[in-house]
Amino acid sequence: MKFDKIDWTRVFFKTYYEKRSAAHLIVNFNRIWILHVAVFWFYTAFNSPTIYRPNPTSEPTAAMTWSATALGGAVATLIMIAATLAEFSYLPTTWNNTSHLTRRLLFLLVCLAATAGPTFYIAITDSPKNKSQIPLIIGIVQFFVSVVLTFVFAIIPSGRMFGDRVAGKARKYLASQTFTAAYPELERGARIASIMHWVLIFGCKFVESYFFLTLSFRDPIRVMVGMTVQNCSDQWFGNNLCKYQATFTLSIMYIMDLTLFFLDTYLWYVIWNTVYSVARSFALGLSIWTPWKDIYTRLPKRIYAKLLATSDMEVKYKPKVRIPAFLEVFSINPKF
User: N or C terminus of the chain with fewer C-beta within 10 Å?
Assistant: First the structure.
């Protein structure tokens, strides 16, 4: 009876605009992009020293190798920044709604400076003739900072990066706790099983992808970087097209390798999901060899035994008579 006196504009917080756009791909799946694109950068940059060598006759220094690999953390941070900027378009522009995103954006800008800034310093100051260990130390620190940040961005949801404010004890978020943010929690055993499921999937995926995708790509990169096709000509393009054929081919190979990097995750998901399904079937006492036809043909008897055959029924019906009528009512009557 008091609903007409509620100030609805001040009750709920973090209200999203109901609209659909391509930006949802980065807002809702930012951790998926980080787990694949950033890790792919770590793997590929480490195995592509030919690209960032100072000249064609020398190899890059150890500091530059550490720093170039550490740029994977900058890639993860850029993905987070893009997701944060895209999320601004889904929120009403009030301080209560955007303050959380503003703090996150400032934090991400600091992370970007920490993961990308040292690379510029090392590229300017480091050289094979420089005997100082400072660039090497900076590169190693940059790498481990990038790994930690990538891990944090990959496992912590964006909304809980600075703590779940809705889950606090502040009374102004009571309505959100009751309605819009009331999510059921998994039991302890189910939650551990879910975590172990994804740990096994990504653990196997990262190991297999490094040895069979990235490491095998190292030699083609070393050969094709700097390769120039000579003595070629075309009526329309001259020698501009075939001259850079190796560069164009290498770019396509990088894109294809990244695509296969994504597909590896699906492969290991199918494998471990099958293992989990079989294990859970045995745990529940079900046989994995039971044909689907038998399961469906036994369904009427199971419904009758579990739901309809109660002791207080005046008239006992056989399953073949009772179940079709029950299913007909269940599918037609809106009350069911």
Answer: N
- Separation CA 157–CA 146 (nearest Å): 18
d(CA 26, CA 82): 7
Does the pTM of the predicted model rise above 0.70? yes
Contact 146, 34 (CB under 8 A): no
Nearest to 69 by CA among 141, 156, 154: 141
How many contiguous H segments (helices) and E segments (strands) does the chain have?
Answer: 15, 0
Q: Could you give the angle at which helices 134-155 and 95-125 cross, rounded to 10 degrees? A: 150
Which letter, b or e, does each residue of 145-158 get, where b requires 16 or more Cβ atoms within 10 Å of its Cβ? bbbebbeebbeeeb
pLDDT for 319-333, tens place per residue? Answer: 555 555 555 545 544
Amino acid identity, residue 155?
A: I
Residue with tokens 């975590």: 195
Task: Please tell me whether residue 179 adopts helix, strand or coil conformation.
Answer: coil
Task: Decide: 68 and 120 in contact? Cβ < 8 Å.
Answer: no
Residues 117-141: tens digit of each pLDDT: 999 999 888 777 777 788 889 999 9
